[in-house]
Amino acid sequence: MDLNYIKGVNLGNWLVLEKWMNPALFDGTTADDEYYLPTQLDPAVYEARIRTHRAEYINERDFATIKSWGLNSVRIPVPYFIFGDRAPFIGCIDELDKAFNWAEKYGLTILIDLHTAPMSQNGFDNGGISGVCKWAQLPDEVEFVLSVLERLSKRYGHRRALMGIEIINEPNTATCWPMANVTERYKAVDPELAEGTGPIAFDWLKNFYITAYHRLRDADKGALPTDKVVVFHDGFDIEQWKDFMRGPDGKLAPEFKNVVLDTHQYLMTAETMGCPQTAEGYDDFVRNTYAPMIAEMSEYFPVIVGEWCLFNSVGCGVDTHGGQSVLNGEEGAQVETLTAEQKRSLYRGLAESQLAAWSKGSGFYYWNYKLLTDTVNTPGWIGWDAWDLGRCIAQNWFPVQK
């Protein structure tokens, strides 16, 4: 398919869990991630919780809502155990099947995003297991991920709703590793299991992406048609990819067709890079850093901003230190520091400037469609409603798309 301009939203926390987006799912446990949740619950209780969550969190009506907001695509994070072949985790291929049927009914496309890998590609809680980043060091698990990509391609490659497949979400590279401070911010439950944890080298990642591309396209393996896109994440360093997949003439080599670069740009990350925590500081950063960066890289690949949102420390009333919540031991504001009108002005301005920056590329997916955290009645969560696109639209912070 031609890559029409993407106006999309992520269905995060549906098939890949993130505790902060639905803390109640982890009640009665000390687990902070999906890896340890089933180790602390009776198997029947675990299965009941997961199946109920999946059935209730996203359904047909949500696809109708997304369409009504003027959006045209959803990015769906899926786990490596989607096919149900990695006990004790419960597969979720039936849910993805339903999503394709809903998407086709409402005229939306789907980007399947492989969001986790065994022993994790990043060490984040959203990578499946906190404080562990060893997947790239385990050849059998690398091969397993390739097999998951192949199976997804075979199952959905010819579906009308499929926009494409993203090879792996947010691999944590040497560029990001010190800033993410993984081993401190995400403490490993089992230090022995985490032994050897470290960043993924760019040379390794580039080779893996090329292997994955060919496996996805190979008629005997993935059979992904060339009119569907293969998406790769920038590993938190967008500048690394200017010579990627290029031929001797500097152009994209002819064997690579319909390849898209995904970059994730959050204001909370900009803050950790020194962006002033003011409305003017954010706006300046978006206009003078994000916009030209997207424009420049779009000369090499179509660029989508696969994750971004309006969340920022000013809206929270406290410095979140890169988006850390009360679950990370951060002290959230107890009362609003901005009036409703001031918040609306802050967020509307940031929505406009970021949407303008992303328009230099090929589109965006807001993170996230929804979260279940009660940011009104639960102390310390002021400002976190900005992660929830539905709440942003309801409060007139984010414009319904035309």
TrEMBL record:
InterPro entries reported in the protein's UniProt record? GH, Glyco_hydro_5, Glycosyl_hydrolase_5
Q: Which family does it belong to?
A: Belongs to the glycosyl hydrolase 5 (cellulase A) family.
The compartments listed are: Cell membrane
Does the record carry Protein biosynthesis as a key word?
no
Pfam families assigned: Cellulase
Q: Which GO terms describe its molecular function?
A: beta-glucosidase activity
What is the official name of this protein in its record?
Exo-1,3-beta-glucanase D
**What is the protein's known function?**
Glucosidase involved in the degradation of cellulosic biomass. Active on lichenan.
Originating species: Bifidobacterium adolescentis (strain ATCC 15703 / DSM 20083 / NCTC 11814 / E194a)
A GO cellular component annotation here is: plasma membrane
- Name the UniProt key words of this record, in alphabetical order: Cell membrane, Cell wall biogenesis/degradation, Glycoprotein, Glycosidase, Hydrolase, Membrane, Signal-anchor, Transmembrane, Transmembrane helix
How does this protein lie in the membrane? Answer: Single-pass type II membrane protein
- One GO BP: cell wall organization
| Domain Glycoside hydrolase family: from-to ranges | 56-315
